[in-house]
Amino acid sequence: MVAYPAIKASNAAIDESTMPQVAVFVGGTSGIGKLTIKALVATGHSTRIYLVGRKSSEGRTKAFIEEQRSVNPKAEIVWIEGEVSLLADTKRICDLIKSKETCIDLLFLTAGYAQFWKLELTSEGHGIVQTLEYYSRMLFVEQLLPQLKRANAGRVISVAGGGLETTRIDLEDLDLKKNFSSFKGQPLYLTQNSLYMEQLADDNPDVSFIHTWPGFVDTGNLWRSVDRNSWMGWVLWLTLQPLISLLTYTDDEAGQRYLFQSTSAAFGGQGVDWHSKPGRNSYDRQANGLYLVNHRCDCTPNAKTMATLRKEARGKNWAHTQSVLGPYL
Ligand SMILES: NC(=O)c1ccc[n+]([C@@H]2O[C@H](COP(=O)([O-])OP(=O)(O)OC[C@H]3O[C@@H](n4cnc5c(N)ncnc54)[C@H](OP(=O)(O)O)[C@@H]3O)[C@@H](O)[C@H]2O)c1
């Protein structure tokens, strides 16, 4: 566990040279993304943040942006309205950002939620949650890669389940259209995040990649797809919700822990100097690459599982994903 005082000390050492000058947040209208924006702005340094969100969140997000302006006038937050559950709109959003920026220092991806019921498809024919948590996230990375590579220390953070990868995925059903069940979605989508990002990290060693698992942060994420009055709602309320309430970090600590992951050199690449235990990538090596990080900010390479997946699943998952993203690349 990286102790909270060490996290706060690292964040206090952020200066204009280690502050992400340009950041893109997808999912920053609520939860962990929003807490991280608050922590970034509170450093007092200059930054430009593109905050992507859907129309229904525009009103409250604009109020949040106003509030942040009074906290730090040097932080500019640019609202971009878009529907990231659609790949065509994700591409449009990326084109817009690329027309404005040549370098991007931080891409922070949090859109999504756990789906416990049936497989719901978008108008493009892909699972909504799989698109939010995987396809659209990887499309953002692919599209913005040239800008990330041009930055001094480009970094991608996907918040889902780094370190929890599993070999128990069906390679013949990578979109769960043949056989969806309530508990297959999250393990598959998080495993896909790690496999695709590891390939990208191998091919682009000048960009840092982090796939992080937040543990429990009480953002209300659990209730996005479950009716509290259904039997499933009652089961979750009696089992998971007490765990979340017990184990959650405070909002401030969660924000500081993700600010640390966004700026520290502990996870390869550049950033605020880190003199404590260095991070280890998904090959369990002390080198650049994909970092699988948990809620305690520890690296959890999940090396044995990743080695099996690398041999048996990474290529197939890459080909499947390319066939989905192809029209938008
Ligand atoms: N919180 C936890 O304890 C926890 C634990 C494990 C994994 N995770 C995963 O980590 C990620 C971040 O979690 P979080 O707690 O920060 O999530 P959150 O507060 O629920 O926010 C997720 C973001 O996703 C967006 N979103 C949700 N449904 C959408 C849709 N249909 N179309 C477009 N955008 C949509 C939300 O937009 P709006 O603001 O417009 O609603 C919000 O910006 C999620 O993928 C979550 O599943 C969270």
TrEMBL record:
<keyword id="KW-0560">Oxidoreductase</keyword>
<dbReference type="Pfam" id="PF00106">
    <property type="entry name" value="adh_short"/>
</dbReference>
<dbReference type="InterPro" id="IPR036291">
    <property type="entry name" value="NAD(P)-bd_dom_sf"/>
</dbReference>
<dbReference type="GO" id="GO:0016491">
    <property type="term" value="F:oxidoreductase activity"/>
</dbReference>
<dbReference type="InterPro" id="IPR002347">
    <property type="entry name" value="SDR_fam"/>
</dbReference>
<protein>
    <recommendedName>
        <fullName>NAD(P)-binding protein</fullName>
    </recommendedName>
</protein>
<dbReference type="InterPro" id="IPR052228">
    <property type="entry name" value="Sec_Metab_Biosynth_Oxidored"/>
</dbReference>
